[in-house]
Specification:
Elements: E1 7-8, E2 23-24, H1 26-30, E3 33-38, E4 43-48, E5 62-68, E6 71-77, H2 82-85, E7 93-97, E8 100-101, H3 107-113, E9 121-128, E10 131-138, E11 153-154, E12 157-158
Antiparallel strand pairs: 1-2, 3-4, 5-6, 6-7, 7-8, 7-9, 9-10, 11-12
């Protein structure tokens, strides 16, 4: 399989916080197939799904977790990405995205916002300590999926 993304589990709460699991590649693998259960024959078949389109990788370069109802806590900022260039830092709290309060958003809402088309502007309200400020990120493709290699290199980032 080509272009499979793995998620490194660095969560300290929730389903991915287990010490026995280091990552998750399941959803990106299973989404590529139509799965047929043959209960009578005791078999499971994986038929390739020709309509499969991989979910875009985050086009912001940040990873955030909804640590409280009012904000997304920024965990990671990758170098040379829109988030890094905007000056965001681990520990920042995103309190609104495109003028929608984080209190009114789920983690899935943020997930989809960060994967919008390249060129889309994403307006963030950010709290850092007692300081509150706005940043605008212009989303861009961070993964080069054009080659046949399962490892991709783009702008100094290794995936």
């Amino acid at each position: 399989m080509r272009h499979v993304l793995a998620r490194y589990a660095n969560d300290n709460k929730g389903a991915f916080s287990s010490r026995t699991e280091a990552g998750n590649i399941g959803s990106d693998i299973l989404a590529r197939f139509r799965i047929v259960f043959d209960y009578a024959g005791g078999a499971l078949y994986f038929e390739p799904d020709p309509s499969f389109q991989p979910t875009p990788y985050s086009r912001t370069g940040l990873q955030a977790l909804k640590s409280d109802p009012e904000a997304f806590h920024v965990l990671t900022i990758l170098p040379k990405t829109p988030a890094a260039e905007a000056g965001l830092m681990p520990g920042d709290e995103i309190t609104a995205v495109d003028d929608i309060s984080a209190a009114d958003m789920s983690g899935s809402d943020l997930f989809y916002k960060m994967r919008q088309s390249p060129g889309t502007s994403l307006k963030l309200s950010v709290r850092r300590g007692n300081e509150v400020f706005s940043k605008t990120l212009v989303l861009r493709e961070l993964l080069d999926r054009s080659n046949d290699s399962s490892m991709c290199f783009h702008e100094g980032l290794r995936f």
